[in-house]
Amino acid sequence: TMAAYALPEGFEEFDMFTFGTALLVGGMIGFILNAITIVAYLRVKEMRTPSNFFVFNLALADLSLNINGLTAAYASYARQWPFGQSGCSYHGFQGMISVLASISFMAAISWDRYHQYCTRQKLFWSTTVTMCCIVWVLSVFWAALPLIGWGVYDFEPMRVGCTLDYTIGDRDYITYMLSLVVFYLLFPAYTMMSSYDAINKHFRKIHLQKFNTKLPLRVMLACWGPYVLMCVYACFENVKIVSPKLRMVLPVLAKTNPIFNALLYSFGNESYRSGVWHFLTGQKFVEPSFKKIK
Questions:
Q1: Closest alpha carbon to 271 in 111, 32, 33, 37
Q2: How does the protein associate with the membrane (predicted)?
Q3: The domain 13-281 is classified under which CATH number: 3.10.129.10, 3.20.110.10, 1.20.1070.10, 3.40.50.300?
């Protein structure tokens, strides 16, 4: 006998399983990598620097997004959303906080790296802690607005997770979405672009490439760009003409961002990687030293 649930419009059993598995695998990999990043920071004393605190906060935001994705994976396997309409609003709210904080911390890290490499200004704890508090407070503030009527959280096409409802396309949605695009995509992207551009010029001048300055912004735009484009498209056209499957692929792609962030900012970052190595193996990680030629 068939179970009592009806499949969402445009989805077969196989799609539910495939999307659920993609969310599960992406969520688990991201969760493990970001958990290592967080625990290493808490366990290895030498890592607790103001700069690394930004990476730690980015990992917290990304871990929260992984939990959001794992919840949707669970619902995919259950073939239905088990937490009701209020659970849906909370899921959308929690996901939105994670995303806004994650993108903000990527911009903060680029700003910090600019000062590390280009201006050589020392970052103080007071600055870092203040900035992190501001990021979290603003993320909660912006994410809470749909709960009080500016925009609305509702089910994604597969009905296993919730996000900002882009199918309404009314004035509230348009003004809220375009505000988010300005403050949480264009502004962070511009910060990252100008910071990494300056760092790149500095690396070229000293003939030493410490990391790939093109990657951070490219990764962020590759993960979030397509989804945001769809949301912006929904401001002007009826997005329901886009197939439900494609509308599900984009948020699933965006939710892989925490994996790349962990690889880029903690495992791929010289000052953070040594602490992660120390935490995982118990060995001090010695960076190969290059003698300066007088």
A1: 37
A2: Multi-pass membrane protein
A3: 1.20.1070.10
